[in-house]
Amino acid sequence: MKMLLIILLSTLLFATATRTNIQSFTQSDGSSFLGRLQGDAFLHWIETKDGSILLFNKKTENFEYATIKNGDLTLSGNIYNTSKLRSLHVNTISKDNLQELWKQRHP
Phi first, then psi: what are they for 99, rounded to 5°? Predict the structure, then answer.
């Protein structure tokens, strides 16, 4: 019984993957876009249909382009907007950059 309890508790400590089905996300202005949750408890983001990598800004209640700073996925300050093309000043994350960060978090 004790061993069963130890196994049960240890499985709760591991991070689980997020749902990966496409869903709708809504910005603070009421606009919405389609994307999918990616990652796990250690590293997570939203990937849009156009391949943009986003994070949610709790203060502004908007989804922003993500950037990598000091080995961490962080907010860029640039709000994702589907009605405009990506601005040239938005530093987008490549799949290779994201994969490298993932490897660092999951040895």
Answer: -65, -40
pTM greater than 0.90: no
Give pLDDT tens digits for 11-27. 444 444 555 689 999 99
Tell me, what amino acid is at 48?
T
**The three-state (H, E, C) secondary structure of the chain, written as one string:** CHHHHHHHHHHHHCCCCCCCCEEEEECCCCCEEEEEEEECCCCEEEEECCCCEEEEECCCCEEEEEEEECCEEEEEEEECCCCCCCCCCCCCCCHHHHHHHHHHHCC
The two most distant CA atoms of the chain are separated, in Å, by 60
CA distance 37 to 61: 17
